[in-house]
């Protein structure tokens, strides 16, 4: 007999068929269709990936002053990321401690206190309950602070983790990436533009698409400055069509290494995408043409540089983090991407362009020139992701092989499957 009031469980075990798919994943191949199309895997991804990993959610530049906030939703979970009166970045569950109403409904804004619409319970930006009308004698406000969410800032980037216990390796990752990021002074930058693009595909297809440049022929604007050789680890694997680009890449890299060394900028590639809970990659890389920025001729889009280093030609700093971010930083601006699942076949890609806080639009930069290359690239990526989702939704789809230049796609999928296995207690059927 079942109990009349069953205890609430946060996550269900996957169905046996899904467990078998997780156990049986074939290394080097794209995933079977249910991972991309089923509601069950979508829910599992929210519970096991997005609720237990560190997630990139905002930049400090979006909440420069006390009282500034952004809200961000992962399925039914909504989080307030705010700057408190002491200037610290805080994260709280967006759920009232009275009878649970959603508190802040705007995607961003500024407020002195967080006031619940329902019965006016009022919280400070630090999450403490300040006011609750008409309570019984002895009511202790200190027992009803907002439930906090782990938050961590790294060189101006804001990460949260929804788990009770967050992966502890974030400290190790921060220690590696901070010296790369710090010279770009993102915490002191300002937002030049932010766009939200909804892609008609599963979030994993968005991530997989980002992790390779095999498809970069579809990005004519980007390819003016982004070397299509990206992802090819040895000359053996380079197709003939890429040989001229590879020659330019080698020359540009040799010149940039001198510049990076001259300014003490770290540049070696660190690749730990599927060997830890907070999988990441970071490197400084050369860019084509003028090598300064993501513009059609490669020259800086913003004349007021982000860094104090008086050198526009720095190539790009690239960082990839599992499960939901990547970034590019050039001398003049930073480009941050965060990926938020909406439905099995819908994904939000948020792109944020940062420039120096004193840079003036129309004087130091033209917004269309600053954003044009990646606005075009994002739309092209969205179209490719939609095509992938459509094909994978056909019963005719069977998983296909990754080539050598798709090694970061394999790393992403391997990280994803490894996390599901660890967090659900599922063993691999075959040895990797
Ligand atoms: O964003 C990246 O890291 C690049 C852009 C093109 C493909 N991908 C590897
Ligand atoms: Fe928020 Fe009642 S639910 S004050």
Fold and architecture overview:
By secondary structure, the chain is of the alpha+beta class. The protein folds into two domains: 98 residues, Rieske [2Fe-2S] iron-sulphur domain (Rieske Iron-sulfur Protein); 225 residues, Naphthalene 1,2-dioxygenase Alpha Subunit, Chain A, domain 1, CATH 3.90.380. Helix content is 25%, strand content 22%. The chain contains eight helices and 17 strands. It has a seven-stranded antiparallel sheet with strand order 11-17-16-15-14-13-12, sandwiched between helices. A four-stranded antiparallel sheet has the order 4-3-2-5, with no helix packed on it. The longest helix has 26 residues. The radius of gyration is 23 Å and the shape is globular. It starts with 15 loop residues before the first helix and ends in an 8-residue tail after the last helix. 42% of the residues are buried. The site of 1-methyl-L-proline has 7 residues, from loops.
List the topology elements:
Blueprint: H1 16-23, H2 34-37, H3 39-50, E1 55-59, E2 68-74, E3 77-83, E4 89-93, E5 108-110, E6 114-115, E7 122-123, E8 129-131, E9 150-154, E10 157-161, H4 170-181, E11 189-199, H5 203-210, H6 243-262, E12 270-272, E13 280-285, E14 316-321, E15 325-329, E16 334-343, E17 346-356, H7 367-392, H8 407-424
Antiparallel strand pairs: 1-10, 2-3, 2-5, 3-4, 6-7, 7-8, 9-10, 11-17, 12-13, 13-14, 14-15, 15-16, 16-17
Helix pairs in contact: 5-7, 5-8
The chain binds 1-methyl-L-proline and FE2/S2 (inorganic) cluster.
Low-confidence stretches: 1-10
Shape: globular
What is the assigned CATH homologous superfamily of the largest domain? Answer: Naphthalene 1,2-dioxygenase Alpha Subunit, Chain A, domain 1
Radius of gyration: 23 Å
CATH architecture of the largest domain: Alpha-Beta Complex
**What is the CATH T-level topology of the largest domain?**
Naphthalene 1,2-dioxygenase Alpha Subunit, Chain A, domain 1
Order of H and E elements:
HHHEEEEEEEEEEHEHHEEEEEEHH
Broad structural category: alpha+beta
Read across the widest sheet, the strand sequence of neighbours is 11-17-16-15-14-13-12
- The amount of helix comes to 25-40%
CATH class of the largest domain equals Alpha Beta
**How many β-strands, per DSSP?**
17
Distinct ligands: 1-methyl-L-proline, FE2/S2 (inorganic) cluster
Q: Please give the domain count.
A: 2
* Ends apart, CA distance between termini: 43 Å
Keywords: 2Fe-2S, Iron, Iron-sulfur, Metal-binding, Oxidoreductase
Cofactor: Fe cation
Protein name: Putative Rieske iron-sulfur protein
Domain Rieske: 54-160
């Amino acid at each position: 007999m079942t109990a009349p009031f069953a205890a609430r469980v946060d996550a269900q075990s996957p169905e046996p068929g899904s467990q078998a798919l997780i156990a049986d994943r074939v290394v080097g191949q794209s995933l079977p269709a249910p991972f991309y199309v089923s509601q069950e895997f979508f829910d599992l991804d929210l519970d096991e990936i997005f609720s237990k990993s560190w997630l990139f959610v905002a930049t400090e530049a979006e909440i420069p002053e006390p009282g500034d906030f952004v809200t961000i939703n992962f399925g039914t979970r909504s989080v307030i990321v705010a700057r408190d009166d002491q200037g610290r970045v805080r994260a709280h569950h967006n759920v009232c401690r009275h009878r649970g109403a959603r508190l802040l409904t705007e995607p961003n804004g500024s407020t002195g206190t967080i006031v619940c619409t329902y019965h006016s319970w009022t919280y400070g930006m630090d999450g403490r309950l300040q006011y609750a009308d008409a309570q019984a004698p002895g009511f202790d406000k200190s027992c009803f602070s907002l439930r906090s969410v782990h938050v961590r800032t790294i060189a101006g980037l804001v990460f949260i983790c929804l788990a009770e216990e967050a992966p502890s390796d974030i400290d190790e990752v921060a220690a590696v990436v901070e010296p790369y990021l710090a010279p770009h002074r993102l915490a002191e930058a300002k937002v030049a533009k932010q766009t939200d693009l909804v892609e008609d595909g599963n979030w994993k297809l968005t991530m997989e698409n980002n992790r390779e440049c095999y498809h970069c022929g579809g990005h004519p604007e980007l390819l003016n400055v982004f070397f299509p050789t990206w992802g090819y680890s040895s000359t053996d694997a380079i197709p003939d069509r890429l040989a001229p680009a590879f020659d330019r890449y080698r020359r540009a890299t040799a010149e940039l290494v001198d510049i990076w060394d001259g300014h003490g900028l770290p540049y070696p590639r660190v690749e730990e995408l599927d060997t830890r809970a907070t999988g990441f990659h970071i490197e400084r890389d050369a860019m084509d043409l003028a090598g300064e920025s993501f513009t059609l001729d490669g020259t800086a889009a913003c004349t007021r540089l982000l860094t104090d280093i008086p050198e526009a030609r720095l190539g790009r700093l690239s960082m990839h983090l599992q499960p939901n971010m990547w970034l590019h930083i050039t001398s003049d601006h930073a480009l941050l991407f965060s990926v938020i699942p909406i439905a099995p076949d819908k994904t939000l890609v948020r792109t944020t362009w940062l420039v120096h806080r004193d840079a003036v639009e129309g004087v130091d930069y033209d917004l269309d020139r600053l954003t044009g290359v990646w606005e075009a690239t994002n739309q092209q990526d969205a179209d490719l992701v939609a095509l992938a989702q459509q094909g994978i939704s056909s019963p005719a789809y069977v998983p296909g092989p990754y080539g050598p230049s798709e090694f970061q796609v394999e790393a992403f999928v391997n990280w994803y499957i490894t996390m599901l296995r660890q967090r659900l207690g599922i063993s691999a059927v075959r040895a990797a």
